[in-house]
Amino acid sequence: MNSFGTIFRVSIFGESHGPAVGIVVDGCPPGIALSVEDFVTDIERRKGGVQKGTTPRKEDDIPEFLSGIFNGNSTGAPIAIQFKNNNTRSSDYEKQKAFPRPGHADFVAHQKFKGFEDNRGGGHFSGRLTVCLVAAGVIAKKILAQHNIQCIATIKEIAGETDLDKGLQKAIDAKDSVGGIVECTVNNLPAELGEPFFDSVESVISHAVFAIPAIKGIEFGAGFAAATMFGSEHNDAIVNMEGKTNTNHAGGIVGGISNGNNLVFRVVVKPTSSTPKEQQTLNIETGNVESFSVKGRHDLCIALRVPVVLEAVAAIVLADLIRRK
Amino acid sequence: MNSFGTIFRVSIFGESHGPAVGIVVDGCPPGIALSVEDFVTDIERRKGGVQKGTTPRKEDDIPEFLSGIFNGNSTGAPIAIQFKNNNTRSSDYEKQKAFPRPGHADFVAHQKFKGFEDNRGGGHFSGRLTVCLVAAGVIAKKILAQHNIQCIATIKEIAGETDLDKGLQKAIDAKDSVGGIVECTVNNLPAELGEPFFDSVESVISHAVFAIPAIKGIEFGAGFAAATMFGSEHNDAIVNMEGKTNTNHAGGIVGGISNGNNLVFRVVVKPTSSTPKEQQTLNIETGNVESFSVKGRHDLCIALRVPVVLEAVAAIVLADLIRRK
Amino acid sequence: MNSFGTIFRVSIFGESHGPAVGIVVDGCPPGIALSVEDFVTDIERRKGGVQKGTTPRKEDDIPEFLSGIFNGNSTGAPIAIQFKNNNTRSSDYEKQKAFPRPGHADFVAHQKFKGFEDNRGGGHFSGRLTVCLVAAGVIAKKILAQHNIQCIATIKEIAGETDLDKGLQKAIDAKDSVGGIVECTVNNLPAELGEPFFDSVESVISHAVFAIPAIKGIEFGAGFAAATMFGSEHNDAIVNMEGKTNTNHAGGIVGGISNGNNLVFRVVVKPTSSTPKEQQTLNIETGNVESFSVKGRHDLCIALRVPVVLEAVAAIVLADLIRRK
Amino acid sequence: MNSFGTIFRVSIFGESHGPAVGIVVDGCPPGIALSVEDFVTDIERRKGGVQKGTTPRKEDDIPEFLSGIFNGNSTGAPIAIQFKNNNTRSSDYEKQKAFPRPGHADFVAHQKFKGFEDNRGGGHFSGRLTVCLVAAGVIAKKILAQHNIQCIATIKEIAGETDLDKGLQKAIDAKDSVGGIVECTVNNLPAELGEPFFDSVESVISHAVFAIPAIKGIEFGAGFAAATMFGSEHNDAIVNMEGKTNTNHAGGIVGGISNGNNLVFRVVVKPTSSTPKEQQTLNIETGNVESFSVKGRHDLCIALRVPVVLEAVAAIVLADLIRRK
Q1: DSSP letter (8 states) at residue B8
Q2: End-to-end alpha-carbon separation of chain D, Å?
Q3: Which residues from A are below 8 Å from B12, CB to CB?
Q4: Which of the residue ranges B58-62, B227-231, B249-253, D6-10 would you say has the lowest mean pLDDT?
């Protein structure tokens, strides 16, 4: 299913080189002020062509409201938003059809969709669709803002370096792509959200987060570091009647339930699959493994574009949990 | 919601010290042979009291079939299984009611359930409920076995040591609890499972996995190590028309879809919250932070009991994906 | 799926002659007082053996709480309730295995469950499972009572007679079974519940109502009579700012949304399939159409037992809508 | 939720006088041939302005594919279809804002959406959205056609008359609107579809059918007539090993499961709420009940437009059941 959520529910559609990508947001309460301007900042943050290391493909990325917004406010009915695709060079992709790109969904898309997939630019699997997540995230953030909740994601590491420019330089030097670590913190999240089985806060956050292309791991609070900690060290001592803890190794979630402290999680973003480097892979026309290099416009480090998407996804999940409460 | 799945769907219930814990398994196809004996091995693997480092609480843990099984086979109707609770010492817990145990769900349960929670032994949040997951896992594994699919989980590290006894000795020496890393591999998983948005294989696996108490992170394939790899290094070259790859940094999932290689993921299990060590935490009766130590029977390293639960949860998820196909 | 609901969600299990039938109620708020005594009245109303025309099978029908209730209150965790089956005469059914009973699910159960169905007494398809609906209904009614909402169902017609004894006498005279009409009214239902697409109040009520065996039609307000009314006649004029109308041809629902007037709907209950009359039907052993008569204990008019079940189902649906609001 | 379905899932959006109405169809298998031409017949059947008694509003109603269709075939990714709104006269509605139209959703929309509703032409509650259902129905019918299943709906009665012109003349003579009865038959439906609790075939059909505006009742097979039948009369005798019955009082469903006979159900369509007749209703500006008459273009008998919508909805439901099988 290309949808997520119980009460606040998003349904995504579109292909990288089709007429449009879009999202339907159901369960938005009425009376949320929404204008095109509200979307600009986050959409700009996601866009390529701005920073060193991101793709020069420029899209206007102007959200068109098809429904659910009237006189500048959400009505309570489903909000449909589309982004027209108008800057695509499909021919880049046509040439390399024989080579299912390593790390990309080309091969699995071909199997899953029995050869009927729109193969241009990754089709439905394209990172292009994250603009829709960002748009839904803008709406979700507005709902959270009514509860004074903020989601803030930042890049912690590029190619193992906390100095991001240094990490990026590694990619440039190696003429290769690199990965990174992105962290998201949610402030003022109320306690009591989530269910132990099976809708723990970790469960629903990770479910949605793994819809973001290139993410291959997630950890909450101390995360994988907990593997080498003692219990007395990892346990966060509660220090007041509101449940505040002196440390936050749990990342704000105990027993699957938010505990009133900051929600903190980190994700690993794999290096961009479309590396400029020549690779060996299968030529499905010949059946042989051959040399191949990816053409087209791509990011050296896709992690650079992830923070705003991660915030959006977290906001979508939490807006739903808040609505379900 | 205390349920998971679309076509193969489980609903869990119960408290640690209530009359019973149990699970309803809906969507099991008819004609799966099921007897009490089929559950023994996995239930024994989960049980405490066997290995160094696990709790001496012994439960008979005999599954009672309430429905859905007739003449030794699944009928196609919902299968309800209960495990009666008959070896509980609630008084252990009564004494420490004033102290919401650090790392445990006591405090959030009290907030979420407004003081009506069954507080004995963690109530509905107890690890006791994982026996239900194991039972549903036995059924799910039988469905997967029809497709020749196996889920195998093993402990990779205890307290940072790959020599498990060494890791465990650390806990004993420190009179504290320790964490660990558990890896699950799924063989013969067919390609094409999962959806890019929002039901990627990573999404649904992690959703269910975070229902297991004490798990705080998950990574697929190379996982967090991908953060320091180059794209040319991380990409798995496809080497034949079945999609087999020479490496498996993707952990068997590309674009959210299984690619026909082994599914591989690892989780971090935090150190058992109930450490024998004295801790500082809130006394909710006095409102002061005081010294406190956990009484009762507990595991030094809960990771030891996780593999069979992790297999079960993976099997539940994959049985559903197979059924949805 | 053998479950229903979004936030307040029930999952049913069991077979007529298996160990037990039961229901798991998820999403019940904490602090609802619940004791066995609370279930007695509604369970008695459903029971056979009391009125002329109902089956002499007597079950104690004592609900056993397996989870979710602690110190006489709901905890907020899933409530599992079982009813043991202890008064069954399976041999009645063994004899007639060759004849899939007309009007019953025997034939479709055999097809759907590939011969693995529990065929005793209708198995999972048995009316016996409605005791579970009634139990969940008791909980749902308590939630509704907090909002001062009542669901009241009454029999309007038996065998076409508004004098019920007269209708029943028709069955006795004809040595046959008869059908009836049952109406449910819900008082004090707030406006705003439901969604035009696809969760109109009519949609969700009818979805759940058709889980009650033997119901073959439902109508809201004027219902089928609307087919011969003029618009000016059918329209309910709004007469005050609360939305009260002078008539209620809409049955309290406009555009799929509750409008603050009484919710009113009627269902038709087909005549009990197990009629004492001899019937012609297929002998699946011989493949011939042969004479056959149903043995066992049965109701002449199953509609007599429907009101409390209908109330229960309406309450389950509305408790969910209230919780989703 | 403005969505329906488990595996084949539709999500609807739009308002009568907004930029567009549309639908997202998720779970359509790849390789279904789909062109604009495929939609023409059914969209024309639904359109006003053709027959005596339907509204003169003419829309081009050309479906625009936004996603999920590539080279003339479904890809397997979500199919988004929009219909632009380009023939609207909102001013008609502006004038009558003080009067929530009796029988319409104006009043409940105002309550539910807290005054933020798009009130033009019924907004999200408009019958205009049924064009989206028809479009999704075209896709669903193509899936069913692969199994040789057809859905065929016809009008049985207008204003109580089986001679439809006669019924319609009643409306014209009375200068009022009238209702009707529409029947849908599904041929070649396989047995085994549906679940007794809570997804009986009756449950899921009626759930979706009540999303069609103006429908106030549904009955399967003999339906409400069963209330006056004897059991021996209503029971359909099985006459061969495929489960064919000599009569079809059950409407093709026994125990909630399709039995291999034709699925037959009927719905009642209330008289169009927008009657030309003057009515008494609340003026929300004055708080008084006043005389009022509906302006704008409307149908004398909305039942005339229902058959193709009913077919569409039935096809959507059954495509999902087939996909879930």
Answers
A1: S
A2: 24
A3: 197-198
A4: B58-62
Work out the minimum CA distance from A77 to partner chain B, whole angstroms.
22
Q: How many domains does chain B divide into?
A: 1
Q: Do C26 and B14 touch (CB under 8 A)?
A: no
**Is the pLDDT score of C317 beyond 90?**
yes
Q: Which residues of A touch B219 (CB under 8 A)?
A: 216-219, 224, 268
- Cα torsion C285, C286, C288, C294 to 10°: value is -40
pLDDT value at residue A281: 85
Contact A179 B229 (CB under 8 A): yes
pLDDT score recorded for residue C298: 77
Tell me the whole-structure pTM to 2 decimals.
0.96
DSSP class of B172: H
Q: Return the residue in A15, A126, A220, A270 with the most chain B beta carbons within 10 A, the one to mutate for interface testing.
A: A270
Residues C131-184: tens digit of each pLDDT: 999 999 999 999 999 999 999 999 999 999 999 999 999 999 999 999 999 999
Please tell me the distance in Å from D13's CA to the nearest CA on chain C: 9
For tokens 């042979």, the residue is: B33
Closest residue in B to D6 (Cα) is B6
Q: Is residue A7 part of a domain?
A: no
Two tokens at A49?
A: 């062509």
Q: What is the mean pLDDT of each run of 10 residues along chain D (325 residues)?
A: 95 96 98 97 80 61 96 97 81 71 92 93 93 98 98 97 96 96 98 95 98 97 98 95 96 97 98 90 90 80 96 98 91
Chosen from A228, A289, A291 to mutate, greatest number of chain B CBs within 10 A: A228
User: E-strand spans in C79-163?
Assistant: 79-84, 150-158
Give the per-residue pLDDT at A129: 96
Q: What share of chain A is helix, strand, coil (3-state, %, to 5)?
A: 30, 25, 45
Rounded CA-CA distance C51/D201 in Å is 32
Please give, rounded to a whole number of angstroms, the shortest distance from the CA of C48 to a CA of chain B: 23
Q: Residue B204 sits in a domain of what CATH number?
A: 3.60.150.10
Task: Give the pairing type, strands D79-84 and C79-84.
Answer: unpaired
> Closest chain A residue to C78 measured between Cα atoms?
A197
Interface contact flag, D66 A13, Cβ < 8 Å: yes
Which DSSP string do the residues of D245-284 spell out, in sequence order? BS--TTTTEETTEE-SS-EEEEEEEPPPS--SS-EEEEET
Domain range spanning residue B54? 3-324
Nearest to B254 by CA among B221, B301, B209: B221
> D239: burial class by Cβ within 10 Å (0-12, 13-18, 19+)?
middle
Subunits adjacent to chain C (3 or more Cβ pairs under 8 Å): A, B, D
Cβ contacts of D20 on chain A, cutoff 8 Å: 66-67, 80
Determine the distance from the C-alpha atom of residue D70 to the mean position of all C-alpha atoms in its chain, rounded to a whole number: 28
CA of B90 to nearest chain C CA: how many angstroms apart? 13
